[in-house]
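Could someone model manganese (II) ion with this protein?
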Amino acid sequence: MKITLTHATEDYLKAIYAISVDGASASTNALAERLKIAPASVTGMLKRLAEASPPHVDYRKHHGVTLTPEGERAALKIIRRHRLLETYLHEMLGFSWDEVHEEACLLEHVISERFESRIDELLGHPTHDPHGDPIPDLNLVMPQEASVRLSALRPPQKATIQRVDAKDGDLLRFLEGKSLVPGSKLEISAYSPFDGNLTILLNQQEMILGPTITRHIFIEEN
Amino acid sequence: MKITLTHATEDYLKAIYAISVDGASASTNALAERLKIAPASVTGMLKRLAEASPPHVDYRKHHGVTLTPEGERAALKIIRRHRLLETYLHEMLGFSWDEVHEEACLLEHVISERFESRIDELLGHPTHDPHGDPIPDLNLVMPQEASVRLSALRPPQKATIQRVDAKDGDLLRFLEGKSLVPGSKLEISAYSPFDGNLTILLNQQEMILGPTITRHIFIEEN
DNA sequence: ATTAGAATTTAGGGTGGACTAAATTATTTT
DNA sequence: AAAATAATTTAGTCCACCCTAAATTCTAAT
Ligand SMILES: [Mn+2]
Ligand SMILES: [Mn+2]
Ligand SMILES: [Mn+2]
Ligand SMILES: [Mn+2]
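Reply:
Sure, complex below.
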């Protein structure tokens, strides 16, 4: 059973890649949750992906799936497109960083090789999208990123924001309003135990942020 | 039976609009031909479009369809997107005029209102696409265009090319190579009877073109 | 008015992709 | 080890969209 990569399958592969970061397998439920699709439907699709030739996933009943080399290549290809598109929408079409995801998630299935390479070129071969997520290069090599959360810092550490992991538009707009965006430099001036609040100095301005927020911000110490 | 405009239905509506230019109805066969879909499949879709609420076409068995006001609005909306996209791909992303159609035909079903208005703005609200086809404005009013074919001219008439009606990439590249593009001014210096060849002066250069070519070029006399 | 040919519709099927409800299997708790 | 709970799969549907082959209907020529 050959398979044509379609809209739906591409989104599945992306989700599987995202969930199985550390080599773990992606469970039916986790995928259903992430894709907003009923678990029963996910099972069906996982079977199709596993029976494709070449197979895109290894599927063990009741134990979820892992990507095969083919599946991973396909996933990286679409992730590259997604992040290039987000960057393009943000930089060239003036989309705000909370609007780019939805649009990119539709465009990614449709643009040609030429479109992809054109925007890559016009953007100067960007390495990160507006949220700070790394963009796989032309050979589909994904740069490894530090994964220290802002919530883990203690005074008097200094750091630079690397990426923000949030899909909620309200949160993204809030963070942008406070300049909590990739590239911003900050300093921890206080830590409050029990509630985990951090007092942060950014642009000569002080703010107190709870862990519900700081958990979503990944930083590099400096 | 409500209907969601999908990829397929949008392409049908565009095709119906294009075929039924002069108020005539679009036949099953003409649509099948244009969309490269079996006639039997077209019948099925026409029924669905007719049974939608509100209906997008008036369907009379064995007599083809005409667009309802809703259908026409939907068609114009998607034609606007298509032509804006073609213009954008050509002007801002460096696509050649024989490459834009295919890409636009996929993107048109996917871009948001915001994307559409952004590129419209960046292009300065263009009125014509790279082939010279008029772009419906925001109120979906389609500018009427003269429709005199170059093949109908005789010496010593002068004219400006308005639009080129061709989907064949080879022809489009040929025409571009000869500067036979919208905006070019030319003069007819000779007409050869029987074969219909025209000798044309364009950019101080003379060329002889047969009716197979000149039929696809629409001009405005001057 | 009949009839041949062309256009169109019907009948029957297939694929991708989603759903709900019910059954099954795995895991955790007792 | 047994029972309760959670995760997953099966079974049965549905919808959009396409296909081929066969039947029907329209149209135009005789
Ligand atoms: Mn997507
Ligand atoms: Mn992103
Ligand atoms: Mn299209
Ligand atoms: Mn065009």
